[in-house]
Design brief:
Elements (H helix, E strand, L loop, with lengths): L3 E5 L31 H7 L7 E6 L6 H13 L5 E5 H6 L9 H20 L3 E5 L5 H13 L4 E6 L3 H6 L5 H6 L21 E3 L6 H14 L5 H4 L12 H8 L3 E5 L1 H12 L7 E2 L2 H10 L1 E2 L5 E2 L7 E2 L1 H6 L5 E6 L4 E13 L2 H9 L7 H9 L2 E9 L16 H10 L4 E7 L5 H16 L5 E7 L11 H13 L8 E3 L11 H12 L5 E4 L20 H7 L8 E4 L3 E4 L4 E4 L8 E2 L3 H9 L11 H14 L4
Parallel strand pairs: 1-3, 1-4, 2-4, 2-5, 5-6, 7-12, 15-16, 15-18, 16-17, 18-19
Antiparallel strand pairs: 8-14, 9-10, 11-14, 12-13, 13-14, 20-21, 20-22
Helix pairs in contact: 2-8, 4-5, 18-22, 19-20, 21-22
């Protein structure tokens, strides 16, 4: 977690002429600087990342756009899970600097103290954004000097906006009053502004948009390795650029190869489209251990990654790949090239440890666990370069939209809030009620155009789950009958396989939706759960997915919307939120009962499910008996 402190300076209408004040009287004697016992690396670990302490100092005329850009940066970073705290100039004068007035000496001392405070924040491992006119080079040089003497980065950002433009923006009328002589010593009018000679970043807010200026600052911080990649780019796609595909295919002809299973290929799709950002390929052992034991990945900040994404291989594969610098991954009987895996790392796949930690079970009858034990005793890690988008040719590829494509869709709809609903089952009107209620709550909070991401899981599922094509047909019927508003709903397929790992997997489902821009995530009852295959008892408590998600590491930018229990209200003849005080009026229609009604050609009570959507399910269960 990265905490940002933003400091702003107010213009005082009573300020007299400013004079340079470059010396500070030292009144403290017989004092000795004490070195902290806690290292900066340790502070970074406490914050859940590498040490990133620094100060970004915005300087420029009043009205130049300093505060606009700094607050935009604050908002941008906060939306990506970076904690922010604002120190305001007036607030500082209520406490730390309440003994200072607005004489030239006091204003210089005000800036000196703020520079020292910024240095302390930076030394604590925080990134301090300071937005002050700070018109004199010596004042800014002093602030830089005390940072650099402490080994802390100081980034001077010159917001270079012409005086004429600043006067045009004069929302408070201060320039007008200064021109009339009502304000004395106003910077740019009758007090000099000394522009930086060698600023680290120059912003021209009269020529570029706020977004362009924001991107310029963020990119500079990234280039200085102060911000992680995930802050600059939330989505890391792993596709080879089109102009380099031919040469990569030529290289692939000489590489040792591994043939992927269908399950492996689904994970390649997840990785290549950016759902597991910032992962750049199948996990190396360090990534695997972090995921298995800590549910995070710290390569680019502190990012939740609760499930390992790994490529199992056999003993023969391990022996064959010895000394290889790259491996070709293929799929199908024709060995179609899928990706090149660079700098392969092979390490032991300790299945029992993984089974107990990821699934919390010792049952090898669990369907995904069973596949895991059959897959291989070794894991192959390395960065992926994928030749092209994974297509399945099943008529549903148009629904398999990448995170970047979904972001573009949300942008085209002018969405200001994205709330996601993960599901692997058909939708009944209780689900629709919860989604509609969430939308209403967001509108009540001031959002204008909240959009629902209806995002059914589209990878491997166990045999008795409703297959993806049937679910998509059922979801389309729900939208056609406008049980959900089609104008504010995007239906797309989430390509991940289902692992049935309960609260551990729920974190993965939530984290992946951040890649496509979701800010709110609806978590249901017993998400990703299933009965123990050996005992029939539920593997996980039905409420633990929701509770774990609320306190999961590396997900601060995602707000969890708790699932409200809905049941059929026999009085109102519709799905309604369950009221324990009126329990006699409610009927819970279980999945078992729903499947029996469908197989027998019966219909559920009016208001339980949209009629056309029910017909889709009824046809499936009557024709297949409920098997995928």
């Amino acid at each position: 977690n990265i905490t940002f402190v933003i400091m702003t300076e107010k213009i005082d209408t009573q300020t007299p002429d400013l004079e340079r004040q470059t010396s500070t009287v030292v009144r403290s004697t017989n004092v000795q600087f004490q070195t902290n016992f806690v290292s900066r690396d340790k502070r970074g670990q406490v914050l859940g990342s590498d040490f990133r302490g620094c100060t970004v100092w915005f300087t420029g005329l009043s009205g130049a756009g300093k505060t606009t850009v700094s607050f935009a940066l604050e908002s941008y970073l906060a939306s990506r899970g970076i904690y922010c705290y604002t120190l305001d100039g007036d607030n500082v004068r209520h406490g730390l600097n309440k003994d200072l007035g607005f004489t030239p000496e006091d204003r210089t001392e005000n800036i000196r103290r703020i520079g020292e405070v910024a240095r302390l924040f930076a030394d604590a491992g925080l990134v301090c954004l300071s937005s002050f006119i700070s018109p004199f080079r010596e004042d800014r040089a002093r602030a830089r000097r005390i940072h650099e003497e402490s080994g802390l980065p100081f980034i001077e950002v010159f917001v270079d906006t012409p005086l004429a433009t600043c006067e045009e923006r004069d929302a408070k009328g201060l320039y007008k009053k200064a021109r009339q002589g009502l304000i004395k010593g106003f910077t740019g009018i009758d007090s000099a502004y000394e522009a930086p000679l060698q600023p680290d970043v120059v912003l021209k807010t009269n020529e570029h948009s706020k977004e362009e200026c924001l991107a310029h600052v963020i990119n500079h911080l990234r280039e200085r390795s102060i911000l992680p990649y995930s802050v600059v780019k939330t989505v890391r796609e792993l596709f080879i650029p089109e102009e380099k595909v031919a040469s990569a295919l030529e290289e692939a002809k000489s590489l040792k190869r591994i043939r992927l299973t269908k399950l492996d290929l689904q994970w390649v799709q997840v990785l290549s489209e950016g759902w597991a950002s910032p992962l750049a390929g199948f996990m190396r052992e360090k990534d695997y251990l972090q995921s298995l034991h800590h549910a995070v990945n710290t390569r680019e900040g502190n990012v939740n990654q609760s499930v390992p994404i790994v490529l199992p291989i056999s003993d023969d594969d391990r022996a064959d790949l010895a000394c290889s610098s790259a491996v070709l991954l293929t799929y199908g009987d024709d060995d179609k090239p899928v990706a090149i895996l660079r700098d392969p790392e092979i390490y032991a796949h300790r299945q029992e440890e993984r089974m107990c930690r990821q699934w919390g079970t010792s049952s090898r009858s669990h369907p995904y666990v069973k596949m895991m034990f059959e897959a291989g005793d070794w894991l192959l890690g390395g960065e992926l370069e994928v030749f092209e988008r994974i297509r399945w040719g099943d008529g549903l590829d148009d629904f398999r939209r990448t995170p970047n494509e979904l972001r573009a869709e949300f942008s085209s709809r002018d969405a200001d809030a994205i709330f996601a609903f993960q599901l692997r089952n058909p939708i009944h009107n209780g689900h629709a009620l919860l989604m509609a209620e969430t939308k209403s709550q967001l509108i009540a909070r001031g959002f204008k155009k909240p959009v629902l991401l209806l995002h059914p899981l589209g990878g491997w599922t166990k045999a008795d789950d409703v297959p993806l094509p049937v679910r998509i047909m059922q979801h389309k019927a729900i939208l056609k009958e406008k049980v959900l508003d089609p104008e504010s709903t995007v239906l797309a397929i989430f390509p991940s396989p289902m692992m049935y790992a309960g609260p551990t997997e729920v974190q993965w489902h939530a984290k992946a939706r951040i890649a496509c821009g979701a800010q709110f995530y609806i978590v249901g009852r017993d998400p990703a759960g299933m009965p123990n295959p050996d005992t029939g008892k539920d593997l996980y408590d039905a409420s633990h997915g929701r509770e774990v998600l609320k306190m999961a590491p590396g997900l601060p930018q995602l707000e969890i919307v708790p699932f409200k229990v809905a049941a059929y209200n026999t009085t109102k003849k519709c799905m309604d939120f369950y009221d324990p005080a009126k329990s006699s009026e409610f009927e819970f229609i279980s999945g078992t009962k729903m499947r029996r009604l469908a197989r027998e050609g019966q219909v559920p009570p009016d208001g339980f499910m949209a009629p056309e959507a029910w017909k889709v399910l009824q046809k499936f269960y009557q024709e297949s008996g409920g098997k995928s």
